[in-house]
Amino acid sequence: MPVWGKKVWLVILIKLFIMFAVLRIFFFPDLLRKNFDTDEERGEHVFDELIIKTDTDD
Amino acid sequence: MIENIDLSLVDWSRAQFALTAIYHWLFVPLTLGLSFILVIMETKYVRTGSEKWKKTTKFWMKLFGINFAIGVSTGLILEFEFGTNWSNYSWFVGDIFGAPLAVEGIMAFFLESTFIAVMFFGWDKVSKRFHLASTWLVAIGANLSALWILVANAWMENPVGMIFNPETARHEMLSFWEVLFNPVAMDKFFHTITSGFVLASLFVTGISAWFLIRNREKEMAIRSIKVATIFGTFASVVMIFTGDTSSRTIAKVQPVKFAAMEALYEGQTDAGLTVFGILTDKDGEGDLDEKNIIARIEIPGFLSVMTNGDRDSFVAGIKDLVKGNEEKGIMSASEKIERGKIARKMLLEYKEAKTQGDNERVYELKTRFEDSNFQEEYFRYFGYSYLNNPADIVPNVPLVFYSFHVMVALGFLFLLLQLLAWYFTANGSIGKRKVFQWMLLFSIPLPYLASVLGWLVTEMGRQPWIIQDRMPVGIAVSSLSASTVQTTFWLFAALFTALLVAEVSIMTRQIKNGPKIEEE
Protein backbone atom coordinates (compact mmCIF):
# COMPACT_ATOMS: atom_id res chain seq x y z
CA MET A 1 0.00 0.00 0.00
CA PRO A 2 1.40 3.44 -0.91
CA VAL A 3 2.28 5.93 1.84
CA TRP A 4 -0.69 8.15 1.03
CA GLY A 5 -3.01 5.16 1.40
CA LYS A 6 -1.61 4.41 4.87
CA LYS A 7 -2.05 8.04 5.87
CA VAL A 8 -5.66 8.02 4.70
CA TRP A 9 -6.39 4.82 6.64
CA LEU A 10 -4.82 6.40 9.75
CA VAL A 11 -7.01 9.50 9.37
CA ILE A 12 -10.12 7.32 8.90
CA LEU A 13 -9.40 5.24 12.00
CA ILE A 14 -8.63 8.26 14.21
CA LYS A 15 -11.73 10.03 12.92
CA LEU A 16 -14.02 7.06 13.54
CA PHE A 17 -12.52 6.52 17.01
CA ILE A 18 -13.12 10.16 17.97
CA MET A 19 -16.63 10.11 16.51
CA PHE A 20 -17.91 6.85 17.96
CA ALA A 21 -15.77 6.21 21.05
CA VAL A 22 -15.54 9.78 22.31
CA LEU A 23 -18.15 12.11 20.88
CA ARG A 24 -21.04 9.67 20.60
CA ILE A 25 -20.56 8.13 24.05
CA PHE A 26 -19.54 11.13 26.14
CA PHE A 27 -21.08 14.11 24.38
CA PHE A 28 -23.95 12.99 22.15
CA PRO A 29 -26.34 10.63 23.90
CA ASP A 30 -29.78 10.20 22.38
CA LEU A 31 -31.48 12.20 25.12
CA LEU A 32 -34.95 10.72 24.79
CA ARG A 33 -33.63 7.17 24.79
CA LYS A 34 -31.31 7.88 27.68
CA ASN A 35 -33.83 9.65 29.90
CA PHE A 36 -36.98 7.65 29.22
CA ASP A 37 -37.72 3.94 29.03
CA THR A 38 -40.80 3.83 26.83
CA ASP A 39 -42.10 5.63 23.77
CA GLU A 40 -45.09 6.71 25.81
CA GLU A 41 -42.83 8.53 28.29
CA ARG A 42 -40.88 10.08 25.46
CA GLY A 43 -44.08 11.29 23.81
CA GLU A 44 -45.32 12.72 27.15
CA HIS A 45 -42.05 14.58 27.62
CA VAL A 46 -42.08 16.14 24.13
CA PHE A 47 -45.77 16.92 24.55
CA ASP A 48 -44.94 18.88 27.69
CA GLU A 49 -42.07 20.62 25.92
CA LEU A 50 -44.33 21.62 23.04
CA ILE A 51 -47.41 22.61 24.94
CA ILE A 52 -46.84 23.28 28.58
CA LYS A 53 -43.28 24.56 28.92
CA THR A 54 -43.83 27.24 26.30
CA ASP A 55 -47.42 28.02 27.21
CA THR A 56 -47.21 30.92 29.66
CA ASP A 57 -48.93 33.89 28.09
CA ASP A 58 -52.05 32.36 26.63
CA MET B 1 -44.08 32.16 24.77
CA ILE B 2 -41.04 31.85 22.56
CA GLU B 3 -39.09 34.19 24.88
CA ASN B 4 -39.06 31.33 27.40
CA ILE B 5 -36.65 29.45 25.19
CA ASP B 6 -32.96 29.93 25.95
CA LEU B 7 -31.89 31.78 22.82
CA SER B 8 -28.21 31.29 23.47
CA LEU B 9 -28.90 27.54 23.51
CA VAL B 10 -30.82 27.86 20.25
CA ASP B 11 -28.09 29.96 18.67
CA TRP B 12 -25.29 27.63 19.75
CA SER B 13 -27.24 24.59 18.58
CA ARG B 14 -27.84 26.25 15.22
CA ALA B 15 -24.23 27.33 14.96
CA GLN B 16 -23.08 23.80 15.71
CA PHE B 17 -25.40 22.29 13.13
CA ALA B 18 -24.34 24.88 10.55
CA LEU B 19 -20.67 24.23 11.26
CA THR B 20 -20.97 20.46 10.90
CA ALA B 21 -23.23 20.69 7.85
CA ILE B 22 -20.93 23.14 6.06
CA TYR B 23 -17.81 21.08 6.79
CA HIS B 24 -19.59 17.87 5.78
CA TRP B 25 -20.73 19.54 2.58
CA LEU B 26 -17.15 20.41 1.64
CA PHE B 27 -16.56 16.68 1.01
CA VAL B 28 -19.89 15.58 -0.48
CA PRO B 29 -20.30 17.44 -3.81
CA LEU B 30 -16.86 16.39 -5.04
CA THR B 31 -17.79 12.76 -4.37
CA LEU B 32 -21.09 13.17 -6.27
CA GLY B 33 -19.52 14.68 -9.36
CA LEU B 34 -16.07 13.12 -9.50
CA SER B 35 -17.60 9.63 -9.30
CA PHE B 36 -19.33 10.22 -12.65
CA ILE B 37 -16.22 11.78 -14.20
CA LEU B 38 -14.39 8.58 -13.20
CA VAL B 39 -17.18 6.57 -14.85
CA ILE B 40 -16.67 8.45 -18.13
CA MET B 41 -12.89 8.10 -17.99
CA GLU B 42 -12.95 4.41 -17.13
CA THR B 43 -15.57 3.74 -19.81
CA LYS B 44 -13.17 5.32 -22.30
CA TYR B 45 -10.43 3.02 -20.98
CA VAL B 46 -12.58 -0.12 -21.29
CA ARG B 47 -13.78 0.85 -24.78
CA THR B 48 -10.39 1.86 -26.17
CA GLY B 49 -8.10 -0.34 -24.08
CA SER B 50 -5.73 2.66 -23.88
CA GLU B 51 -3.36 2.63 -20.91
CA LYS B 52 -3.41 6.45 -21.04
CA TRP B 53 -7.07 6.45 -20.04
CA LYS B 54 -6.32 3.92 -17.30
CA LYS B 55 -3.56 6.15 -15.93
CA THR B 56 -5.86 9.19 -16.06
CA THR B 57 -8.68 7.32 -14.34
CA LYS B 58 -6.39 6.00 -11.61
CA PHE B 59 -4.97 9.46 -10.91
CA TRP B 60 -8.39 11.05 -10.40
CA MET B 61 -9.60 7.97 -8.53
CA LYS B 62 -6.79 8.51 -6.03
CA LEU B 63 -8.02 12.06 -5.34
CA PHE B 64 -11.60 10.77 -5.19
CA GLY B 65 -10.48 8.17 -2.64
CA ILE B 66 -8.77 10.73 -0.39
CA ASN B 67 -11.84 12.96 -0.44
CA PHE B 68 -14.23 10.05 0.10
CA ALA B 69 -12.22 8.48 2.92
CA ILE B 70 -11.82 11.71 4.86
CA GLY B 71 -15.37 12.89 4.28
CA VAL B 72 -17.18 9.61 4.85
CA SER B 73 -19.23 9.39 8.05
CA THR B 74 -18.88 13.11 8.81
CA GLY B 75 -22.61 13.37 8.05
CA LEU B 76 -23.34 10.96 10.90
CA ILE B 77 -22.43 13.74 13.31
CA LEU B 78 -25.51 15.59 12.11
CA GLU B 79 -27.56 12.59 13.18
CA PHE B 80 -25.87 12.63 16.61
CA GLU B 81 -26.94 16.26 16.92
CA PHE B 82 -30.56 15.44 16.09
CA GLY B 83 -30.72 13.05 19.03
CA THR B 84 -28.95 15.30 21.50
CA ASN B 85 -29.55 18.93 20.59
CA TRP B 86 -32.81 18.62 18.66
CA SER B 87 -34.71 15.90 20.49
CA ASN B 88 -38.06 17.73 20.39
CA TYR B 89 -37.76 18.03 16.63
CA SER B 90 -36.61 14.43 16.23
CA TRP B 91 -39.63 13.17 18.09
CA PHE B 92 -42.17 15.54 16.52
CA VAL B 93 -41.04 14.68 12.99
CA GLY B 94 -41.69 11.00 13.69
CA ASP B 95 -40.88 8.35 11.12
CA ILE B 96 -40.95 10.82 8.24
CA PHE B 97 -37.32 11.71 8.72
CA GLY B 98 -36.25 8.26 9.85
CA ALA B 99 -37.62 6.37 6.83
CA PRO B 100 -35.59 8.10 4.07
CA LEU B 101 -32.47 8.06 6.25
CA ALA B 102 -32.92 4.33 6.89
CA VAL B 103 -33.37 3.66 3.17
CA GLU B 104 -30.23 5.72 2.56
CA GLY B 105 -28.29 3.64 5.08
CA ILE B 106 -29.52 0.27 3.87
CA MET B 107 -29.59 0.77 0.13
CA ALA B 108 -27.40 3.53 -1.09
CA PHE B 109 -24.64 3.60 1.50
CA PHE B 110 -24.08 -0.17 1.36
CA LEU B 111 -24.15 -0.12 -2.43
CA GLU B 112 -21.57 2.63 -2.40
CA SER B 113 -19.32 1.22 0.31
CA THR B 114 -19.38 -2.36 -1.02
CA PHE B 115 -18.33 -1.48 -4.53
CA ILE B 116 -15.87 1.20 -3.51
CA ALA B 117 -13.59 -1.60 -2.23
CA VAL B 118 -13.68 -3.26 -5.68
CA MET B 119 -13.10 0.12 -7.31
CA PHE B 120 -9.94 0.82 -5.30
CA PHE B 121 -8.44 -2.58 -4.71
CA GLY B 122 -9.83 -4.59 -7.62
CA TRP B 123 -7.89 -3.20 -10.61
CA ASP B 124 -5.86 -6.39 -11.13
CA LYS B 125 -8.23 -8.75 -9.37
CA VAL B 126 -11.47 -8.49 -11.34
CA SER B 127 -12.23 -8.15 -15.04
CA LYS B 128 -12.23 -4.72 -16.69
CA ARG B 129 -15.98 -4.80 -17.12
CA PHE B 130 -16.67 -5.84 -13.56
CA HIS B 131 -14.40 -3.06 -12.36
CA LEU B 132 -16.21 -0.56 -14.56
CA ALA B 133 -19.56 -1.81 -13.25
CA SER B 134 -18.27 -1.23 -9.69
CA THR B 135 -17.29 2.34 -10.55
CA TRP B 136 -20.78 2.89 -12.00
CA LEU B 137 -22.39 1.47 -8.87
CA VAL B 138 -20.28 3.69 -6.60
CA ALA B 139 -21.37 6.74 -8.59
CA ILE B 140 -25.03 5.70 -8.56
CA GLY B 141 -24.85 4.74 -4.87
CA ALA B 142 -23.26 8.06 -3.87
CA ASN B 143 -25.91 10.03 -5.73
CA LEU B 144 -28.73 7.86 -4.37
CA SER B 145 -27.43 8.56 -0.87
CA ALA B 146 -27.86 12.23 -1.63
CA LEU B 147 -31.41 11.58 -2.86
CA TRP B 148 -32.61 10.20 0.47
CA ILE B 149 -30.95 12.88 2.55
CA LEU B 150 -32.46 15.55 0.31
CA VAL B 151 -35.90 13.91 0.50
CA ALA B 152 -35.71 14.22 4.28
CA ASN B 153 -34.53 17.81 4.03
CA ALA B 154 -37.24 18.66 1.49
CA TRP B 155 -39.92 17.42 3.86
CA MET B 156 -38.79 20.07 6.34
CA GLU B 157 -39.34 22.67 3.62
CA ASN B 158 -42.64 21.31 2.39
CA PRO B 159 -44.20 18.77 4.77
CA VAL B 160 -46.36 16.34 2.75
CA GLY B 161 -47.63 12.78 2.94
CA MET B 162 -48.24 12.64 6.71
CA ILE B 163 -50.67 13.30 9.53
CA PHE B 164 -50.05 14.47 13.10
CA ASN B 165 -51.08 12.03 15.82
CA PRO B 166 -51.92 13.80 19.12
CA GLU B 167 -51.68 10.47 20.97
CA THR B 168 -47.94 10.17 20.33
CA ALA B 169 -47.16 13.84 19.59
CA ARG B 170 -45.54 12.67 16.35
CA HIS B 171 -46.13 12.90 12.63
CA GLU B 172 -46.95 9.63 10.92
CA MET B 173 -46.32 8.86 7.29
CA LEU B 174 -49.41 8.36 5.14
CA SER B 175 -47.72 8.09 1.76
CA PHE B 176 -44.07 7.20 1.21
CA TRP B 177 -44.44 8.12 -2.47
CA GLU B 178 -45.79 11.55 -1.66
CA VAL B 179 -42.79 12.13 0.60
CA LEU B 180 -40.38 10.81 -2.06
CA PHE B 181 -41.93 12.71 -4.97
CA ASN B 182 -42.39 15.91 -3.00
CA PRO B 183 -41.79 18.57 -5.68
CA VAL B 184 -39.25 20.29 -3.43
CA ALA B 185 -37.33 16.99 -3.10
CA MET B 186 -37.16 16.40 -6.84
CA ASP B 187 -36.02 19.96 -7.63
CA LYS B 188 -33.56 19.90 -4.77
CA PHE B 189 -32.12 16.53 -5.77
CA PHE B 190 -31.43 17.43 -9.40
CA HIS B 191 -30.19 20.91 -8.54
CA THR B 192 -27.89 19.59 -5.81
CA ILE B 193 -26.35 16.71 -7.72
CA THR B 194 -25.80 18.81 -10.83
CA SER B 195 -24.13 21.47 -8.69
CA GLY B 196 -21.87 18.66 -7.42
CA PHE B 197 -21.14 17.68 -11.03
CA VAL B 198 -20.19 21.27 -11.84
CA LEU B 199 -18.00 21.52 -8.74
CA ALA B 200 -16.20 18.32 -9.64
CA SER B 201 -15.68 19.34 -13.24
CA LEU B 202 -14.18 22.67 -12.15
CA PHE B 203 -12.00 20.77 -9.66
CA VAL B 204 -10.70 18.56 -12.48
CA THR B 205 -10.19 21.44 -14.93
CA GLY B 206 -8.53 23.56 -12.22
CA ILE B 207 -6.02 20.89 -11.24
CA SER B 208 -5.42 19.98 -14.87
CA ALA B 209 -4.74 23.69 -15.52
CA TRP B 210 -2.13 23.55 -12.75
CA PHE B 211 -0.36 20.73 -14.62
CA LEU B 212 -0.45 22.83 -17.80
CA ILE B 213 0.96 25.85 -15.94
CA ARG B 214 3.75 23.67 -14.57
CA ASN B 215 4.29 22.14 -18.01
CA ARG B 216 3.74 18.63 -16.62
CA GLU B 217 1.47 15.75 -17.64
CA LYS B 218 0.11 17.90 -20.48
CA GLU B 219 -1.53 15.05 -22.34
CA MET B 220 -3.34 13.78 -19.27
CA ALA B 221 -4.34 17.32 -18.29
CA ILE B 222 -5.88 18.12 -21.69
CA ARG B 223 -7.62 14.75 -21.80
CA SER B 224 -9.06 15.41 -18.33
CA ILE B 225 -10.16 18.95 -19.21
CA LYS B 226 -11.97 17.58 -22.27
CA VAL B 227 -13.98 15.10 -20.24
CA ALA B 228 -14.63 17.50 -17.37
CA THR B 229 -15.73 20.45 -19.48
CA ILE B 230 -18.16 18.47 -21.64
CA PHE B 231 -19.60 16.86 -18.51
CA GLY B 232 -19.54 20.17 -16.65
CA THR B 233 -21.17 22.18 -19.44
CA PHE B 234 -24.16 19.86 -19.65
CA ALA B 235 -24.34 19.76 -15.84
CA SER B 236 -24.23 23.57 -15.70
CA VAL B 237 -27.15 23.85 -18.12
CA VAL B 238 -29.22 21.35 -16.10
CA MET B 239 -28.17 23.07 -12.87
CA ILE B 240 -29.40 26.44 -14.14
CA PHE B 241 -32.64 24.88 -15.42
CA THR B 242 -33.28 23.06 -12.12
CA GLY B 243 -32.41 26.23 -10.22
CA ASP B 244 -35.20 27.94 -12.14
CA THR B 245 -37.71 25.16 -11.43
CA SER B 246 -36.62 25.15 -7.76
CA SER B 247 -37.32 28.88 -7.50
CA ARG B 248 -40.79 28.41 -8.98
CA THR B 249 -41.55 25.64 -6.47
CA ILE B 250 -40.26 27.82 -3.63
CA ALA B 251 -42.54 30.65 -4.80
CA LYS B 252 -45.48 28.28 -4.24
CA VAL B 253 -44.54 26.47 -1.02
CA GLN B 254 -42.26 29.01 0.71
CA PRO B 255 -43.38 32.39 -0.63
CA VAL B 256 -41.68 34.36 2.17
CA LYS B 257 -38.33 32.77 1.31
CA PHE B 258 -38.93 33.54 -2.36
CA ALA B 259 -39.76 37.19 -1.60
CA ALA B 260 -36.62 37.42 0.56
CA MET B 261 -34.49 35.93 -2.24
CA GLU B 262 -35.68 38.79 -4.45
CA ALA B 263 -35.97 41.38 -1.61
CA LEU B 264 -39.50 41.95 -2.87
CA TYR B 265 -41.22 43.88 -0.10
CA GLU B 266 -44.33 44.99 -2.00
CA GLY B 267 -46.19 42.42 -4.10
CA GLN B 268 -46.49 43.38 -7.75
CA THR B 269 -47.94 42.41 -11.05
CA ASP B 270 -45.38 42.79 -13.82
CA ALA B 271 -42.71 42.23 -11.14
CA GLY B 272 -39.11 42.82 -12.20
CA LEU B 273 -36.28 40.34 -11.69
CA THR B 274 -33.50 41.84 -9.59
CA VAL B 275 -30.15 41.41 -11.26
CA PHE B 276 -28.21 43.51 -8.78
CA GLY B 277 -29.20 45.24 -5.58
CA ILE B 278 -27.80 46.86 -2.46
CA LEU B 279 -29.77 46.44 0.74
CA THR B 280 -29.49 47.59 4.31
CA ASP B 281 -31.20 46.18 7.35
CA LYS B 282 -30.53 48.79 10.02
CA ASP B 283 -33.22 47.62 12.39
CA GLY B 284 -32.49 43.93 12.22
CA GLU B 285 -34.54 40.95 11.08
CA GLY B 286 -38.20 41.39 10.39
CA ASP B 287 -38.00 45.01 9.34
CA LEU B 288 -40.57 45.61 6.64
CA ASP B 289 -39.48 49.10 5.74
CA GLU B 290 -38.77 49.28 2.03
CA LYS B 291 -36.30 52.13 2.43
CA ASN B 292 -33.85 49.33 3.24
CA ILE B 293 -33.34 48.88 -0.49
CA ILE B 294 -30.75 51.43 -1.56
CA ALA B 295 -30.29 50.46 -5.20
CA ARG B 296 -31.62 47.86 -7.57
CA ILE B 297 -31.14 46.96 -11.22
CA GLU B 298 -33.94 44.82 -12.55
CA ILE B 299 -35.33 43.27 -15.71
CA PRO B 300 -38.91 44.60 -15.88
CA GLY B 301 -41.67 42.00 -15.72
CA PHE B 302 -39.28 39.07 -15.76
CA LEU B 303 -39.96 37.85 -12.23
CA SER B 304 -43.70 37.53 -13.00
CA VAL B 305 -42.88 35.67 -16.21
CA MET B 306 -40.40 33.32 -14.55
CA THR B 307 -42.66 32.63 -11.57
CA ASN B 308 -46.04 32.23 -13.24
CA GLY B 309 -45.33 32.30 -16.97
CA ASP B 310 -47.33 35.51 -17.31
CA ARG B 311 -46.05 39.08 -17.16
CA ASP B 312 -49.36 40.31 -15.73
CA SER B 313 -49.35 37.80 -12.88
CA PHE B 314 -48.98 38.85 -9.26
CA VAL B 315 -45.91 37.96 -7.22
CA ALA B 316 -46.45 38.29 -3.46
CA GLY B 317 -44.09 40.53 -1.52
CA ILE B 318 -43.01 40.28 2.10
CA LYS B 319 -45.59 42.83 3.24
CA ASP B 320 -48.43 40.89 1.55
CA LEU B 321 -47.35 37.72 3.27
CA VAL B 322 -47.03 39.33 6.69
CA LYS B 323 -50.07 41.61 6.61
CA GLY B 324 -52.17 39.57 4.21
CA ASN B 325 -53.72 40.65 0.92
CA GLU B 326 -57.42 39.93 0.72
CA GLU B 327 -57.69 40.93 -2.92
CA LYS B 328 -55.07 38.34 -3.89
CA GLY B 329 -56.33 35.70 -1.43
CA ILE B 330 -53.24 35.81 0.79
CA MET B 331 -53.84 35.02 4.45
CA SER B 332 -52.09 37.29 6.95
CA ALA B 333 -49.54 35.93 9.41
CA SER B 334 -51.81 37.17 12.25
CA GLU B 335 -54.60 34.91 11.00
CA LYS B 336 -52.17 32.01 10.79
CA ILE B 337 -51.03 32.73 14.36
CA GLU B 338 -54.67 32.57 15.50
CA ARG B 339 -55.23 29.29 13.67
CA GLY B 340 -52.02 27.87 15.11
CA LYS B 341 -53.17 28.83 18.61
CA ILE B 342 -56.48 27.05 18.06
CA ALA B 343 -54.59 23.90 17.04
CA ARG B 344 -52.31 24.15 20.06
CA LYS B 345 -55.22 24.78 22.42
CA MET B 346 -56.89 21.66 21.09
CA LEU B 347 -53.74 19.68 21.69
CA LEU B 348 -53.66 20.94 25.27
CA GLU B 349 -57.34 20.03 25.71
CA TYR B 350 -56.58 16.57 24.37
CA LYS B 351 -53.82 16.17 26.93
CA GLU B 352 -56.09 17.36 29.77
CA ALA B 353 -58.95 15.09 28.71
CA LYS B 354 -56.57 12.16 28.63
CA THR B 355 -55.20 12.98 32.07
CA GLN B 356 -58.72 13.26 33.48
CA GLY B 357 -59.74 10.00 31.82
CA ASP B 358 -62.51 11.76 29.85
CA ASN B 359 -62.60 9.16 27.05
CA GLU B 360 -65.53 10.71 25.25
CA ARG B 361 -63.71 14.03 24.90
CA VAL B 362 -60.46 12.23 23.95
CA TYR B 363 -62.31 10.40 21.17
CA GLU B 364 -64.00 13.60 19.99
CA LEU B 365 -60.73 15.53 19.83
CA LYS B 366 -58.83 12.64 18.20
CA THR B 367 -61.50 12.47 15.50
CA ARG B 368 -61.06 16.18 14.95
CA PHE B 369 -57.29 15.74 14.58
CA GLU B 370 -57.85 13.00 12.02
CA ASP B 371 -60.06 15.29 9.96
CA SER B 372 -58.08 16.39 6.92
CA ASN B 373 -59.80 19.79 6.95
CA PHE B 374 -58.59 20.45 10.47
CA GLN B 375 -55.07 19.34 9.54
CA GLU B 376 -55.10 21.53 6.44
CA GLU B 377 -56.87 24.59 7.86
CA TYR B 378 -55.50 24.67 11.39
CA PHE B 379 -52.80 22.19 12.31
CA ARG B 380 -50.62 23.13 9.35
CA TYR B 381 -50.18 26.51 11.10
CA PHE B 382 -49.30 24.92 14.44
CA GLY B 383 -45.82 26.51 14.45
CA TYR B 384 -47.29 30.01 14.15
CA SER B 385 -48.77 29.64 17.63
CA TYR B 386 -45.30 30.18 19.06
CA LEU B 387 -44.75 33.50 17.30
CA ASN B 388 -45.39 36.81 19.02
CA ASN B 389 -45.18 39.10 16.05
CA PRO B 390 -46.38 38.48 12.48
CA ALA B 391 -43.11 39.91 11.16
CA ASP B 392 -41.27 37.04 12.89
CA ILE B 393 -41.94 34.99 9.74
CA VAL B 394 -39.48 37.15 7.80
CA PRO B 395 -35.93 35.77 7.56
CA ASN B 396 -32.81 37.92 7.38
CA VAL B 397 -33.55 39.43 3.96
CA PRO B 398 -30.09 40.83 3.07
CA LEU B 399 -28.39 37.54 3.94
CA VAL B 400 -30.81 35.51 1.82
CA PHE B 401 -30.83 38.06 -1.00
CA TYR B 402 -27.05 38.33 -1.33
CA SER B 403 -26.46 34.60 -0.91
CA PHE B 404 -28.97 33.86 -3.65
CA HIS B 405 -27.69 36.46 -6.11
CA VAL B 406 -24.01 35.64 -5.63
CA MET B 407 -24.83 31.94 -6.09
CA VAL B 408 -26.74 32.63 -9.31
CA ALA B 409 -23.97 34.88 -10.66
CA LEU B 410 -21.39 32.18 -9.91
CA GLY B 411 -23.58 29.57 -11.63
CA PHE B 412 -23.51 31.55 -14.87
CA LEU B 413 -19.77 32.21 -14.48
CA PHE B 414 -19.21 28.44 -14.23
CA LEU B 415 -21.11 27.86 -17.46
CA LEU B 416 -19.02 30.51 -19.20
CA LEU B 417 -15.77 29.02 -17.88
CA GLN B 418 -16.76 25.53 -19.00
CA LEU B 419 -17.80 26.71 -22.45
CA LEU B 420 -14.53 28.60 -22.90
CA ALA B 421 -12.51 25.63 -21.69
CA TRP B 422 -14.43 23.36 -24.09
CA TYR B 423 -13.82 25.76 -26.98
CA PHE B 424 -10.10 26.21 -26.21
CA THR B 425 -9.69 22.45 -25.88
CA ALA B 426 -11.51 21.85 -29.16
CA ASN B 427 -9.37 24.34 -31.09
CA GLY B 428 -6.19 23.05 -29.42
CA SER B 429 -5.20 26.35 -27.79
CA ILE B 430 -5.84 25.47 -24.13
CA GLY B 431 -2.17 24.53 -23.59
CA LYS B 432 -1.02 28.02 -24.61
CA ARG B 433 -3.55 30.15 -22.75
CA LYS B 434 -1.69 30.85 -19.51
CA VAL B 435 -4.09 33.50 -18.19
CA PHE B 436 -7.04 31.19 -18.73
CA GLN B 437 -5.17 28.34 -17.05
CA TRP B 438 -4.65 30.53 -13.98
CA MET B 439 -8.34 31.46 -14.07
CA LEU B 440 -9.28 27.79 -14.05
CA LEU B 441 -6.91 27.11 -11.17
CA PHE B 442 -8.26 29.97 -9.06
CA SER B 443 -11.84 29.01 -9.85
CA ILE B 444 -11.54 25.76 -7.82
CA PRO B 445 -12.91 27.27 -4.55
CA LEU B 446 -15.76 29.16 -6.24
CA PRO B 447 -18.20 26.25 -6.66
CA TYR B 448 -17.61 25.34 -3.00
CA LEU B 449 -18.61 28.90 -2.13
CA ALA B 450 -21.66 28.74 -4.43
CA SER B 451 -22.70 25.43 -2.90
CA VAL B 452 -22.55 26.76 0.65
CA LEU B 453 -24.41 29.92 -0.42
CA GLY B 454 -27.13 27.69 -1.89
CA TRP B 455 -27.54 25.96 1.45
CA LEU B 456 -27.61 29.33 3.21
CA VAL B 457 -30.53 30.35 0.99
CA THR B 458 -32.28 27.06 1.72
CA GLU B 459 -31.79 27.02 5.46
CA MET B 460 -31.66 30.71 6.41
CA GLY B 461 -34.41 31.55 3.94
CA ARG B 462 -36.91 29.37 5.77
CA GLN B 463 -36.27 30.83 9.21
CA PRO B 464 -37.90 30.88 11.72
CA TRP B 465 -38.97 27.36 10.76
CA ILE B 466 -37.25 24.03 11.27
CA ILE B 467 -40.37 22.42 9.76
CA GLN B 468 -42.11 24.91 7.51
CA ASP B 469 -45.13 26.45 9.33
CA ARG B 470 -45.28 23.59 11.84
CA MET B 471 -42.33 24.03 14.14
CA PRO B 472 -40.07 27.03 14.76
CA VAL B 473 -36.40 26.37 15.45
CA GLY B 474 -36.67 27.66 19.02
CA ILE B 475 -39.15 24.94 19.99
CA ALA B 476 -37.14 22.14 18.42
CA VAL B 477 -34.15 22.26 20.77
CA SER B 478 -33.61 19.90 23.70
CA SER B 479 -33.47 21.08 27.29
CA LEU B 480 -29.69 21.34 27.54
CA SER B 481 -27.35 23.96 28.87
CA ALA B 482 -25.84 26.25 26.27
CA SER B 483 -22.37 25.56 27.70
CA THR B 484 -22.69 21.84 26.80
CA VAL B 485 -23.40 22.76 23.19
CA GLN B 486 -20.58 25.32 23.20
CA THR B 487 -18.13 22.63 24.31
CA THR B 488 -19.12 20.26 21.53
CA PHE B 489 -19.16 23.14 19.04
CA TRP B 490 -15.46 23.76 19.64
CA LEU B 491 -14.70 20.03 19.65
CA PHE B 492 -16.30 19.74 16.22
CA ALA B 493 -14.57 22.85 14.98
CA ALA B 494 -11.23 21.28 15.96
CA LEU B 495 -12.05 17.83 14.56
CA PHE B 496 -13.36 19.08 11.22
CA THR B 497 -10.57 21.60 10.78
CA ALA B 498 -8.05 18.81 11.39
CA LEU B 499 -9.84 16.65 8.80
CA LEU B 500 -9.88 19.47 6.29
CA VAL B 501 -6.18 20.17 6.83
CA ALA B 502 -5.47 16.43 6.43
CA GLU B 503 -7.51 16.32 3.22
CA VAL B 504 -5.89 19.38 1.69
CA SER B 505 -2.37 18.35 2.64
CA ILE B 506 -2.66 14.72 1.50
CA MET B 507 -4.44 15.75 -1.67
CA THR B 508 -2.03 18.55 -2.64
CA ARG B 509 0.88 16.20 -2.03
CA GLN B 510 -0.65 13.61 -4.34
CA ILE B 511 -1.46 16.21 -6.98
CA LYS B 512 2.15 17.40 -6.88
CA ASN B 513 3.31 13.78 -7.19
CA GLY B 514 1.10 13.37 -10.26
CA PRO B 515 0.02 10.09 -11.81
CA LYS B 516 3.45 8.45 -12.00
CA ILE B 517 4.00 8.09 -8.26
CA GLU B 518 0.54 6.55 -7.99
CA GLU B 519 1.77 3.44 -9.73
CA GLU B 520 4.22 2.73 -6.87
What can you see in these coordinates?
The complex is a heterodimer of chains A (58) and B (520). With 58 residues, chain A is mainly α. Chain A has one domain. Helices cover 76% and strands 0% of the residues of chain A. Chain A is built from 3 helices and no strands. Chain A is rod-shaped and about 60 Å long. In chain A, 21% of the residues are buried. Chain B is mostly helical and 520 residues long. Chain B has one domain. Helices cover 71% and strands 6% of the residues of chain B. Chain B is built from 20 helices and 8 strands. In chain B, strand 7 and strand 8 form a beta hairpin. In chain B, helix 1 runs parallel beside helix 20, helix 6 packs across helix 8 and helix 8 runs antiparallel to helix 9. At the A-B interface, helix 1, helix 2 and helix 3 of A face helix 2, helix 3, helix 4, helix 13 and helix 20 of B.
Short descriptors:
heterodimer, A: 58 residues, mainly alpha, 3 helices, 76% helix, rod-shaped, B: 520 residues, two-stranded antiparallel sheet, 20 helices, 6% strand, globular
Secondary-structure blueprint:
The complex is a heterodimer of chains A (58) and B (520).
Chain A: H1 3-27, H2 31-35, H3 39-52
Chain B: H1 7-48, H2 51-71, H3 76-84, H4 87-93, H5 95-121, H6 128-157, E1 162-165, E2 170-173, H7 176-180, H8 183-213, H9 218-253, H10 255-262, E3 268-269, E4 273-279, E5 293-299, H11 302-308, E6 314-315, H12 318-323, H13 333-356, H14 359-370, H15 372-377, H16 397-426, H17 434-442, H18 445-461, E7 465-467, E8 471-472, H19 473-476, H20 482-518
Helix pairs in contact in B: 1-2, 1-6, 1-8, 1-20, 2-20, 5-6, 6-8, 8-9, 8-17, 8-18, 9-10, 9-16, 10-16, 13-14, 16-18
